[in-house]
Amino acid sequence: MAAHSIYGSYTRLKSHLMLAACFACTAGILLILVLVLGYLVSIGFRSLHWSFFTELPTGTPRNPGGMRHAIAGTGVLIFLASLVGAPIGLLAGIFLSEYSSKSPLAGPVRFTADVLAGVPSIVVGILGYELLVVPLGHYNGWAGALALAFIMIPIVARTSEEMLRLVPRSYREASIALGASRARTIFRVVIPAATGGLVTSIMLAVARIAGETAPLLFTALGSRLMTLDPNEPFPSLTKQIYDYATGPYPEQKRLAWAGLLVLISLILGVNILARIVTHRMQRHH
Amino acid sequence: MRYWSSILREKTWRPSADTWLFIVVHSAAVLLLVMLASLVIVLLPAARLSFQTFGWSFLVDSDWRPNEIDRPKRGPDGKVLMEDGQVVMETLPPQFGALPVIFGTAASSMLALLFAVPLSVGTALFLVRIAPSLKLAGPISFLIEFLAAIPSIAYGIWGLFVLAPFLQNVIEPLAQQTLGHVPGLSWLFTESARISGATVTRSLPLSGRDMLCGGLVLAVMILPIITAVARDVLRAVPREQIEGTLALGATWWQSCKEMLRFARAGLFGAVMLGMARAAGETMAVAMVIGNNNRISLSPFSPAQTMSSLLANEFAEASGPMHLSALVEVALILLVMSLAFNIVARYFVVGRQVPAGGG
Hints:
Chain A is an all-alpha fold. Chain A has helices at residues 9-47, 51-54, 68-99, 106-117, 121-136, 141-165, 169-177, 182-193, 195-210, 237-246, 250-284. Chain B has helices spanning 2-5, 17-46, 48-54, 99-134, 137-149, 152-179, 211-235, 239-247, 252-262, 264-280, 283-288, 306-313, 320-347, and strands spanning 64-65, 69-72, 82-83, 86-87, 89-92, 95-96, 190-195, 198-203. Chains A and B meet through helix 1, helix 3, helix 4, helix 5 and helix 6 of A and helix 2, helix 4, helix 5, helix 6 and helix 7 of B.
């Protein structure tokens, strides 16, 4: 190709150099991924011990115990947040996918969902503080769950919309042609065809809120006690990791590394699962 | 109007399943609008106290002093006032100004863009122009998406324990040795403060936890979003556009340039989205930026962003005025990120093709 080029060697050389630069950029990003993940996984593995899952904090920094309370706390927070966030998010997703082509609300709602997904999570934490911490007079788990639900809803709405859009239009047309009502078509045809995708959209949102720290700082606050009562300051994995990692004791830092590894494994697992499900749906339809 | 009246066509008030679903689904949609409105409605009254006290000067005042301080009172000639051999003291009330954190947010975001944009656009070009023929587009896209899924706190810990020591021990001494002696660049490594009326200059303690570290961590965190959006934008460039340039004999890079030129509005949107993400990012920045409420132009000095200020001070706010000032900072942050997002959405035109039911 070079022999026939109408350009001088400088132009061709520049093209080759830029091609190499694009390779280098990609390699650079992958290198960053390897550096970050490699570090976190390697220190995490060295620190992870069975007692991490089974023991509670002891109160003595030299022998800090485990993080059972924080795992349970994050579990409860996710459950409470999903209880509110998943149905509302899914319904909004159904609206965006099934009703939006004629609804005058469609444009504003899709736009709002996108904008909400971009609201800084710390601001959502302050919303939780004003709505539930100030009235109750103390930090509590409800406020944390509310903040997480707030973050969850736009994510579920947008991803479930995309999943529902993967269901071919012909399915809907066939169902309507057979005389089924709109609601029947959605519940009996569209949703069953997209079940995997809808579950995935919730899982992705759960993975996202499981890693959130900022909205919990002044809502759930965190706690070193095992508690399942959301009326009290509530423990969470991320806040506990943050406290231990920025604290002075190496034994506690080790617990933080282990917690981070658990968190990242969970998130990686969900992301891989999501990819598999989406691929399968795309192939199916 | 016709759209809404479809549910009112019932002859008797016994709504069908269709009607119920219509109502429920639309309520959920309206709830999204309410959520966005509630952010402003809830935060505004909480920030009122601060706004009434400081007004618009909150935006340009660089003092952030949560506690009242006592200091010697000075006369009009600048001398400390004495009375009966005692220094006369005056008490200054708490003072809040958001300029340092607004500056910190802007500077750290710009720094992040400076590092992230070239890398992201290069990678996006790779993903669109090179990777498909190597069958690499899928796996690399997935890896980059995973970079986006790693929680903020993980980046914070990496920044705190890997990047900051590296900057402190390797990069910053190196920079100081090479750039420190260049005339006109010494401000990079010094800070000056006014003590008793005189300006004192001293060299910066290089801690590694500074604006540079914050910018770098932010850059890593916004790489995936800029790459993903830039990739989609470049992919949407019509094939004919590229084939046309190649047919005219353009080199690979010349056709890429044409592609970038064609997609420039979308690329701008991608950058704005990255900017919005960087401005709102909290935990990672709070852990590495050094948390110092002062304006300094040197990237080697500790700084503070709006979100890191909130993370550090909100839970331990020292009174209603402090709390209110922090909420006002949150409002500024909210408005800023909304503005960035809206501008970005305007440029990245909806990539969805309408499907679904009618």
